[in-house]
């Protein structure tokens, strides 16, 4: 087994700020990154990038060249990570995520980020359809919009579990199972 | 606007039989096909095809070369339709669906079939991410497994509506809006 | 190493007939198939499939549902093979070839068929870019059009060799290196 | 018709320097960019980006984060252009080039850059297979390796012409045909 950690849309353009809705999840994602480092597993930040030519109706805070594309300070630095932009909703949308995972020999992806009903759901589906084993980190994902009804997160993880046959685990259980610290000098990421 | 109708997994291998769970939906999908013909819109049957080499855990009733791949009798004949196999869950999975729609100049897809929490959901997401306008036919889709909890269909269509910004319409409304009969001699499908 | 054999466009629609231009290559491709079977390697026939809706200028002998799509009699039967349609020029064009190879764990592709300046060239490039090791069978490929200038085959194989870093080998050498007969009972294809 | 200009691998990592082999082509590509601006056509710089995890045998001057990825000074600034990285040889390799062209409504691509036997050839093939009209700028492309035999450029453009049915035009003819200056205030790029 060779796992990688995919962190979705934890970028400035999504408004993660101390005190903002759902901000407490950021600390858990930070723990996830540290656990991945300790285990020698590759971390990939994947977030949206829009171009002015995209011909989309809504205004975007994730335009190419804008600050919105930067990983939030709490998850910096990113010098050991891989940064990939997705062009639409899924982490695999019109980019090199599959190619990059494949050339590294990754067979398992641990998915964190927001929102569960959006990018997490589509990324889990695409990862599964590209035949990676999928693990979604239950408490490192959320529905990052207050307008969604209660139970939206659980509804999406239920689909992920029953349809995609993916594991949905809390952070601690996922670390124990997939990100056990590797012995010194045995980085798993470089395979 | 140039719509096409995508009918997902209405194949023998999925066990659609008079009296079987959800069978009453078949008559509505039949009406949808007839409406598409009357409107001159292309119908595409898209269903799963597995190969013995796929290395999947579960047994499949949709193996290449098997009867399971045939469109169910109620939706025959298919001589005016396009038949495309999807290799995994989404209608766009590792096949020529996007290419075929694109070369026809299709800009809008009307999606029917089962299950709402599975292929309908992923197909809607991929169609949206490939920038087709997406319309899901509410009463021509269902969760085709009795083990799913009540509300599963509604949970999925809520995501389709709120996240994918797609329309979710009952058959009659969709026909009125997207499949109005074309004047004689003006097939829209051949564009 | 787990090789598979890809045979491109050896279908009725391309006019392979006793006495026709280049027909002598068919016997060598037959030998290749037999060698693959003896070695337990998977054979994949990949050829073009066009749809009436494709909006292409030229008339096609490879329309969906037509006889042109059948593998030529000399390479029948195909019951142990996988048959995949490519939608345009490359063997990987808008289909499940990559997915199918990947799920089988194939890492090396041996390419035969015609024409060297067309589908062979693009298939080799796509296989290389999807990170398969590429071997092109020099005397099992040809430029299957008499109007091409002399040296066209060699020009294409030179690009395949120098740019794609692929091996270009005659059939006998390729069999010796990649398709050595497997001991009885040890089919490699089913891995 | 809505053309875009694709400039391949004119990046620092490829060693374009005054006096270097083939450097005189740079001035013509500069003219091409200016003509595209005058015509209101979008310019896209597309060049290679490798990651340390790519597991490729050769050393790369095009690593993510390195100076090699910068467009050469002669073709700066790039503030009106779109910059896209290709992950391997073709300009369409594992990235958002097709998506970006498609969302802009581009139907015609004018291709320049190097090398003709490598990225130009594969990019032309992929553009054609994604059904763009392809125009290759004969004197804005070259084989950017002195070790290739004479006639390599012509061999590749012959394939582009005869197999891909693409136009191969010198810069002046291409400007006259596809990049005629648009009237003031009528940018074509923003469509």
Summarize the structure.
By secondary structure, chain A is an alpha/beta fold. The first copy, chain A, has helices at 24-39, 97-104, 116-129, 152-162, 171-178, and strands at 3-8, 42-48, 82-86, 108-114, 133-142, 167-169.
Shape of chain A: globular
For the largest sheet of chain A, list the strands in their spatial order: 3-2-1-4-5-6
Major pleated sheet of chain A: 6 strands, parallel
Based on CA atoms alone, the radius of gyration of chain A comes out at 16 Å
* Arithmetic mean of pLDDT of chain A: 95
Structural class by SSE content of chain A: alpha/beta
Largest interface pair: C-D, 24 and 24 residues
Helical amount of chain A:
25-40%
Oligomer: homotetramer
Low-confidence stretches of chain A: none
